[in-house]
Design a protein that fits this description.
By secondary structure, this protein is of the alpha/beta class. Helix content is 32%, strand content 17%.
């Protein structure tokens, strides 16, 4: 009997700010927290990815172990993505972390009303931002036990996959030794 492959840990990062995306990826890379990070640039792409429709209809892989979700984005807001996820019987089990610049009480209240698992205000300072994302990644990708269907067996090669306008593969694996 062959041993089962190690489940891959994938994260869906939904953010329209390229600087925040790069900082988030660097912070996750620094702690080897995910084999795959799928990056989409707006809420509409996030919903298409999660519901496997449009250009993601035949995508490989299962669900992410968690979603890092900005709120203020073009087309569909993060709150609308969260609401759609929590209304779907299959997707509602996926943990969602709002990583947004808004510290407004109504936003915070509405996200928790819709079932967000965590709400984190993006720090302005570079070092603080990196530390917060690393802490989020450690908890949600390493400490927290993901929903049973979230992790799927795949090769353990690390990749960053931009699902919007560009695709970059194997970005993580070049900068540190295999673990």
């Amino acid at each position: 009997m062959e041993p089962e492959p190690t489940p891959i840990k994938s994260i869906l990062l939904v953010d329209d700010d390229p600087r925040d995306v790069e900082l988030t990826l660097a912070a996750l890379e620094g702690h080897h927290l995910a084999n795959k990070v799928f990056v989409v640039q707006d809420g509409a792409e996030a919903l298409d990815y999660l519901f496997r429709r449009g250009k993601f209809e035949n995508r490989d892989g299962g669900d992410p172990i968690f979603v890092l979700l900005d709120n203020s984005m073009p087309k569909v807001s993060g709150l609308e993505v969260l609401t759609a996820m929590k209304a779907d019987p299959h997707l509602k089990m996926i943990p969602v972390v709002a990583l947004t610049s808004s510290s407004e009480t109504p936003d915070l209240h509405e996200f928790y009303q819709q079932g967000v698992n965590s709400y984190v205000v993006k720090p302005v300072m570079f070092d603080d931002f990196m530390k917060v994302v690393q802490q989020l990644g450690v908890f949600w990708a390493a400490v927290n036990e993901p929903p049973p269907a979230a992790a799927i067996p795949e090769p353990s090669e690390k990749e960053v996959i931009y699902l919007g306008k560009k695709e970059v593969k194997n970005e993580f694996s070049s900068s540190h030794p295999a673990s």
